Each structure stands twice: as structure tokens, then as C-alpha cells.
Amino acid sequence: MPIPPTGSKQLARMLPLAVIAVTGAALVAAYAYAAGWLSPDRLTPVLIIDNFHADFGQHPGFRRNHAKGMCVAGYFEGNGLGTPYSSAAVFDKVRTPVIGRFAVPGGNPAVADTAGPVRSLALQFTQSNGEQWRTGMNNTPVFIVNTPQGFYDNLQASRPVPGTGKPDPTRLPAFFAAHPESSAFRLWVKGHPPTSSFANTRFYSINAFELVDGKGVHHLARWSVLPEANAAPLSPAAASDPNALQDELAERLRAGPQRWHLQLQLAKPGDPGNDATIAWPDDRQVIDAGVLTLESTVAQDDGPCRDINFDPTVLPRGIQVSNDPLLAARSGAYARSYNLRTGEQAALHATPGASR
After folding, report:
1. Residue 305 pLDDT more than 70?
2. Distance between CA 335 and CA 293 in Å, rounded?
3. Which fold has domain 67-324?
4. How far apart are CA 90 and CA 119, in angstroms?
5. Residue 164 pLDDT exceeds 70
6. Which of helix, strand or coil describes residue 223?
7. Taking the CA of residue 48 as centre, how many other CA atoms within 13 Å lie in the half-sphere pointing to its CB?
8. CB count, 10 Å around CB of 354?
């Protein structure tokens, strides 16, 4: 029978177990903090998603925001001009497959395409080495707020009043007064009427990111995709059609691919990377890094984008998150939405005769 270790030998054997235990406890505590378990009044992904439910109702199986959308597929061809600033393989002279999703804001999957001025384009680039770059962009170069708390306040101010279906007319003005940073977003929307198509719309990353080159040097950047299709105003007839943008894009893609140029805007010292309400000056260096080509569209119910969580913090080597606080909040809310809808979809498909 082996003799039990004593003294320093026993301590030496126990030390690794103690380290594991402490590390595990720290991870659990960190997760508990992130989930809000240790601070019930703290703003959490659960609270954010609960407010989407309060604003838009519950629609099982759908995203909690940008619920109405359509899948698209195509590819990106890098031209090598981005490689001095990022070591990500997507910027090499290669073709990278892309799955994307056009959508409109809000949690109502039956909303009209043209109900509001904001549109979105989410993309997933899958590099040959298996790494992915996911990005969620809007057609506005700035966001309405610059903190998660501001976004939460906006959700509450926008909540429809029972019986009217519209926000309380006193709450939004109060929100704007309390959040003067929202003025840039409102001015941009006022001065840029919606275009006639997803295909002739420019989309922006809004948040800043860090491009990391092969020497490990960081370059603060934002990006956008600039359409080759000429802009045209939305017609009154299209504005009254609830599926105008989706139907128009499907028709365009049947006629041929649609293309956008990926533009990398590089910051100068002093440009903020942590405030999505401030656009950088137009004189900042812009790199045309390649062409995004979209070839086909599929309904989101069974399309390739259905099961993708377009978390903007899923990044390949060569691209990193900045210190923008909205990025972590977006990641957490997206994960909460993804877990809810995929669980609901699984339950729905397990029910005989059920359909969505």
C-alpha cells in the first residue's frame, strides 16, 4: 500500500488542484458578473432582449432585432491593398466565400421594408484557413448613441403605448434631450432620403476596429461597402409596398450579380475609436480593399444565413475589437437572441405539423 504524502510533498501535489479550483471559481464569478447574477440592477443582455420583447412583442424563432430579412450569398475578392494594414487572409489577392443577410430594424418580422430609414447588411467571410470575419453594418455612418445604457434608454423611449401602437410623444423628445450625442444620427437621416434598393445602398461598420498588420502594428479603422449601382430615390409606390426592398433585390439578382467596394477608412491620432456617434473627417485615408459580389438570395426561413449569429466580435487574426463599449454589448445581446431563437426553432421543428 502506498504511503500518503505528507508535509511539503503533499502541499506540492495539492497546489495544482488549488490553482485549478481558484481559476475555475474566477471564471464562474466572471460569467456570473457578465450575466448580472452578482448585480441584479446591472444592464445585461437579458435585460436588453427583454426590452425588445416589450417593444415588439415575442416572435418565436426570429431574431430579436432585425427580425425581417433575407439571405444572400456570394464572394469577396481582395486586391492586396489592405495587406499593409491587416494580416487577415481576406485582404490577400484571393476569393473568399461570403454569406450575408439584408434586414430592417426591429423585432417584428412582418414590418414593412420601408417602415423606417435604417437598413442593415450582415456578412460572414470564411477564409481558407477556417477563420471567420463577421460584420454587421447599417446604412448610417453613425449610431444613435455611444453607450449600452444609451441604447437601453432608446428602447424604453421608443416603446409603443398600449392602444395607440406608437411611442409616447413626450418620451422621445426627452430621450433626445438627455442624449445630445444622438443629434449627428438624426441630422444624417434627415439629410439622406432612403434609396430605392438594398443594392444601391452604402453600409457602414459604425463601430471602429483595430487592423493589425504583419509586424503587429495596430491601425484604428472603420469600413463600409460602397455600391457600384447608382443611387436612386425610393418611389412612392415602393414606399407603400411592405416587401418592396426584398422583392426588388431578388429581381436584380436574377438579372445578374450586384457589387460593392470594401472601403477601409484609417483614423488619425486623436480620432475616437470608442464613440460610434462621431464620424471621422472625410479627409481620412481610405483603402479600396476589394470587391464584394452577391449572386443569389434565399428566404431566411431555410437560407444559409438563418443559423448564423452575426456577432461583430467574431474576427480573424489581423482584425481586433476596439475599445468601443457598444461592441461587447452587441456581442452579448446577439448571443442571447441567438440562443433563444435557435431553441425555439428546434422546439418548433420537433412538433409534428408545426410551421413558422
Report:
1. yes
2. 28
3. Catalase HpII,  Chain A, domain 1 (2.40.180)
4. 25
5. yes
6. strand
7. 25
8. 9
Domain range summary for the chain, segments of one domain joined by +: 67-324
pLDDT of residue 170: 95
| Full DSSP string of 235-267 | PHHHHT-TTHHHHHHHHHHHH--EEEEEEEEEP
Residue 157's φ and ψ, nearest 5 degrees, are -70, -25
Residue 177 reports pLDDT greater than 70: yes
Query: Residue 31 pLDDT > 80, yes or no?
Result: no
Say whether pLDDT at 136 is over 70.
Answer: yes
Strands (E), the chain: 68-78, 95-104, 120-126, 132-138, 203-204, 209-212, 218-227, 258-266, 286-299, 319-321
C-alpha distances out from residue 102 to 23, 74, 292, Å: 42, 13, 14
pLDDT, tens only, 240-293: 899 999 999 999 999 999 999 999 999 999 999 999 999 999 999 999 999 999
CA 152 to chain centre: 16
41 has pLDDT over 90: no
Tell me if residue 66 is catalytic.
Answer: yes
Rounded to the nearest 10 degrees, what angle do helices 45-56 and 325-349 cross at?
60
CA atoms of 278 and 269, how far apart (whole Å): 15
Marked catalytic residue, from 53, 59, 66, 261: 66
pLDDT tens for 181-201 read: 999 999 999 999 999 999 999
Grid cell, residue 93, equals 489577392
Burial class (CB in 10 A: 0-12, 13-18, 19+), 17: exposed
- Contact assessment for residue 197 and residue 70, using Cβ atoms and an 8 Å cutoff: no
Element (H, E) at 345: helix 325-349
Residue 210 and residue 321 in contact, taking contact as beta carbons nearer than 8 Å = yes
DSSP string covering 101-154: EEEESSS-TTS-TTSSS--EEEEEEE-TTS-EEEEEEESSSS-S-SSHHHHHHH
Residue 263 contacts residue 289 (beta carbons within 8 Å): yes
Closest Cα to residue 268, out of 277, 281, 256? Answer: 281
